[in-house]
Design goal:
The chain is an alpha/beta fold. Helix content is 31%, strand content 28%.
């Protein structure tokens, strides 16, 4: 309750300030993003001030961590669902004419993001639905068949974007360490609304490869599905600190 009251005071102070509307919106968003992340993270995490959370270590002692939140905007890509539907169309084109028709696939709102294995399950569901097989559907809401002289699949309401290793490293590189004795974390906030989609494919490399950074911990945080992914980090020597240029290397 104390944490919520503090947040309300900070937001009230921001909204009553003389900043530009855009700046106010960004500050409020950063507070809300961090508040929700801390609430989901566990370990007694709570916001103590803007850009800082307090944790409990293994011995129950309090530890403060500076946290930077940054929006994870993805580079524009083709709707991943379109690729999946095209693959299915190719497969069915080789089958007999009884499947000829126009199929409109409607999807359920996913509770979490997709990885390679989940994408295959999604594809199998669509194929089973078209064939009329009786299965338990997790992703497909319904498939409507309409007359057509060819086999086609359409989707009007579901957009899925791929989140790649390159997307993540690019955003990491845009954030800098502060001059501080505290531990510093980076939270990359993934938003379906901001990226104009309904779900994401999380590239397998994001969960297995290491990212170059000077932050002690980095997380991808999906604001709407409440999913938190902690990334592997490869320490970067000479990580840039905000306001402090890197020392020159090599021999002039």
């Amino acid at each position: 309750m104390k944490s919520i009251q503090s947040i309300e005071r900070w937001i009230t102070a921001i909204e009553s300030s003389k900043q530009e509307a855009c700046a106010k919106e960004q500050e409020v968003k950063a507070i809300v993003d961090l508040w929700k992340f801390a609430d989901l993270y566990g370990n007694g995490a709570a916001i103590t001030q803007k850009g800082e959370i307090q944790l409990e270590d293994a011995n129950g002692l309090a530890e403060k961590v500076s946290v930077v939140t940054s929006d994870l905007f993805l580079t524009p890509k083709e709707n991943a669902i379109s690729k999946i539907l095209s693959e299915i169309e190719t497969e069915f084109s080789a089958l007999d004419a009884r499947y000829t028709g126009l199929y409109n696939v409607e999807f359920r709102n996913p509770e979490s993001n997709f990885d390679a294995a989940e994408i295959q399950k999604l594809k199998s569901e669509i194929i089973s639905g078209i064939k009329g097989e009786v299965i338990l559907f997790k992703y497909v809401e319904r498939i409507r068949k309409m007359p057509s002289s060819e086999f086609r699949i359409v989707n009007r309401d579901f957009k899925m974007l791929e989140c790649t290793y390159e997307d993540v490293q690019n955003i990491i590189d845009q954030n800098y360490l502060m001059q501080s004795d505290q531990k510093q974390w980076l939270v990359l906030v993934l938003s379906a609304i901001d990226n104009n989609c309904r779900s994401f494919i999380i590239d397998e490399a994001i969960k297995t490869a290491a990212f170059s950074s000077g932050f002690e911990k980095i997380f991808i945080f999906d604001f709407y599905t409440s999913e938190i992914i902690e990334l592997n980090i490869m320490a970067q020597i000479g990580m840039a600190i905000k306001g402090v240029p890197l020392a020159a290397s090599g021999v002039a």
